[in-house]
Amino acid sequence: MSLVNYQTREITCKIVYYGPGRSGKTTNLHYIYSQVPQDRKGKMVSLATQTDRTLFFDFLPLDLGTISGFTTRFQLYTVPGQVYYQATRKLVLQGADGVVFVADSQARQLQENIESFQDLHQNLSEQSVDPRSIPLVIQYNTQDLPRELILTTAELSDAINFRSVPDYSGDALHGPGVFETLRGISEIVLKRLSTPSSAR
Amino acid sequence: MTGTASRLAVAAAHAVAEQPGLTYNPLFIYGSSGLGKTHLIGAIGNLVQQRQPQLAVEYVTLEDFVEQLHAAIAANEAERFKQRYGRVDVLLLDDMQFLTGRRETQAELLRLLNALQGTGRQVVMTSDRPPSEIPDVDERLITRLSGGLIVDVGAPDYETRIAILRAKCDERGMRFQTGVLDELAKLDFHNIRELQGALNKLIATQALGGDQIRAEQVPGMFGGAPPPPRASVQVRASRAISRPVLDFQSFVSDIESSIAKHVDPWKIKVAEAVAYWNGEGYRTMQLERILQNAGPKADFEAALREYFAAVERLRALEGAATAIDPALGANDVFRDPERLADAEALANRAFSGATPPPGPSAAFARAEFEVSASNQLAVRAADAVIEEPGKKYNPLFIHGPSGVGKTHLANAIGNEIIDLSGGASVVACVSAQQFMDELIAAMQDGSVDRWRTRYRSADALVIDDVQFVAGKERTQEELFHVFNALHSEGKQLVFASDRPPRQLDGLEERLRSRFEGGLVVEMQAPDRALREKLYAHYLNEVETPDRDALIAYLADRGATSVREVIGIVNRLIAAADIAGMPLLLSVAKTELDSTTPAPHAPEARVADGYFLDDEKIVWHLPDVAGRLIEEPR
């Protein structure tokens, strides 16, 4: 997928929210959706099971209007976190311009985070995408929970962010950190506009 | 001031102003208040008037439009209102969002848009939102508003804001400490008007307070809170849950500056060229390849120049080719700079295939034309025409009986015009019969346009035996148009006929009046003086002992036409041959008197010597054209 099309004057970014089940990926998208002004709102597509866990994936097209003469669209996807939806995760990950890894800050979920992060690397490798070069940021979500239940961002960073990618603390339910994370990933993705050789 | 957010709108406005009605019609510009929409559409109007002053440009806000409509309806002048707007070439409508709920206005506007667009007139509209979001508007109207191009004018980006502020400061002759304007530009103003207001406040503060404003004071002066940190990628968020939540709007503006930073300006330029020339209908594959290859960007300007040059050349070729054959205009090769060679070839084929209109026969020279009282009027007129084609007697209509030399004279005029122009002039010289045959042939193979163009591109037109067009409707129709086309360009027209226009039955009134609009001259049967000259001319090379007596005898006999003179000469030469002796007067007498008495020319007609007297004729009638009254069509 071409990120920037100079002829049709379109910039299209596909950003995938990745992470373990219940870490708040869909919540991120919902918050973003709730903040988009009426005139820019596309349709958020969610395919969920009856228990409201993401079965297939969420898709939020985000129309940012004309920027620098380019019609700019962000496509935000989430993958289902549950381990057994491996195939769906691979499918959604295809052609991603950037990945947001949404980690669950709860102390008891640390192992899940690490496993999911490894899973991400494995899936990227399988699609012959170098996990070290694809734009990636990490969000430590659910930081609004009581202190005693969660790890600090520093602790999480030590455990997960061994590559020192930009990371953010987040409270996707209430908003803090959501747009910061999106901005963070967007800017890394957009940076690659000027270095087309590194883009796929 | 064109920033990235308004570049597309400005480009579209430019395209529209350059060629109203041809590119984006209607052009719909939207954007929130104070971003320069009205400025932009005003600029379109000004540019159009500058380029094409003959076009009627009308700027009106929707409010005014509604008011005028109401006033017109109240005064029972709705029809006048419609007519007034129906005549506008470029209609600029501001503030379309006020359409909401105005059924009457919508209906009127719908009708007006249909009328204007149907006749290729340009409509430009502005609104604070896209057409589809103007509430309570007729669906049909929305589709029409959206039918052309919809562009938005975005809020100016940081750099544009700085540029605007600097320009405004220069305008006001105001200087600030470094950093002040940058601080001001960083603040979150939604539009240019607010930004200007803020600048005014700064100017006033500094001018009245006397102190230089420092950069760090600026945020405090406008709403207090320092601007949120922007565009820093590495926001290592430690426990910063309490800091202000980044909202969608500032996210978008961050992304904007990020995109502005990272898109390649040269690619934008190339892409703009692609969009522009695509809009003009040209193929842009070679530019698109530059974009795709993302190759060495150093030569993109050269590539663009090369492309423009090719397009220019194509335009020139197309112009030249369509002048020959309008049907060539639709040809694809004129739209693809990569096929320039093909276009050249096609144009060349058109040039070589285009036969110039038939010219005058070289056999007829003015120098060989013998003059006497019976034809001197026509000859003098012909000389005047040769001297200044198109200036004096246009058209020149020569009539007279068969064989008096009309064809000779008409062709001679054509030859002389060509000679005097050094061969540059194209003189079409045909008989009416040939003119009609060509028309019929052209109608058969569908090349009437080309045929017409051939004649219209001539510098002068000579039509012999024009009496044949009488009763031929289509030929008269074409002749009428060719006449008008040439006459309006001051090109000479010469007609020869066997009788004056007034006596041509079946000649349309509009042609007759045009034929009579120049000079109608008569050539009469040769009088004795002319006959003498003619016999002298034709017997010049014949062996005859008693030449003078023979010529005098022959001239006395009379002849109704030059053709008859030639016939007699030939007959005498043949008779002398048969008799095996030189052409003696006696041979002539035997030959001519023994047979039928020669029909005697009606000398009386020629004898109107008073009128034909050279000195009594007014050669230059001043201002004839001004006194001619055309019949109303």
Structure description:
- The complex is a heterodimer of chains A (200) and B (633).
- Chain A is of the alpha/beta class and 200 residues long.
- Helix content of chain A is 29%, strand content 27%.
- Chain A is built from five helices and eight strands; from the N terminus they run ββαβββαβαβαβα.
- In chain A, strands 1, 2, 3, 4, 5, 6, 7 and 8 form an eight-stranded mixed sheet that branches.
- The longest helix of chain A is centred in the middle third of the chain and has 17 residues, at 110-126.
- Chain B is an alpha/beta fold.
- In chain B, 52% of the residues lie in helices and 8% in strands.
- Chain B has helices at residues 7-18, 37-51, 62-74, 78-86, 103-118, 139-145, 158-172, 180-186, 192-209, 217-221, 248-262, 265-279, 285-293, 300-324, 340-353, 376-387, 406-420, 432-444, 448-456, 473-488, 509-515, 528-538, 547-557, 562-579, 585-594, 603-606, 609-612, 624-627, and strands at 27-30, 57-61, 90-94, 122-127, 149-152, 396-399, 427-431, 460-464, 492-497, 519-522.
- In chain B, the strands form two sheets. Chain B has a five-stranded parallel sheet, sandwiched between helices.
- In chain B, strand 3, helix 5 and strand 4 form a beta-alpha-beta unit.
- In chain B, helix 16 (376-387) packs parallel to helix 17 and helix 18 packs antiparallel against helix 19 (448-456).
- Chain B is elongated, with a radius of gyration of 39 Å.
- In chain B, 35% of the residues are buried.
- Residues 224-244 and 600-607 of chain B have low confidence and may be disordered.
Count of DSSP strands of chain B: 10
The greatest inter-chain interface is formed by: A-B, 46 and 49 residues
The helix fraction of chain B, in percent, is 40-55%
Q: How much of the polypeptide of chain B forms β-strand, as a percent range? A: 5-15%
Mean model confidence by pLDDT of chain B? 78
| Shape by Cα distribution of chain A | globular
Q: How far is it from the N-terminal to the C-terminal residue of chain B, by CA?
A: 53 Å
Structural class by helix and strand composition of chain A:
alpha/beta
| Tally of contiguous helical segments of chain B | 28
Oligomer: heterodimer
- Taken as a percent bin, the fraction of beta residues of chain A is 25-35%
CA gyration radius of chain A, whole angstroms: 16 Å
Q: Which strand order does the major sheet of chain B show?
A: 2-3-4-1-5
Output the structural class of chain B.
Answer: alpha/beta
Low-confidence stretches of chain B: 224-244, 600-607
Count of β-strands of chain A: 8
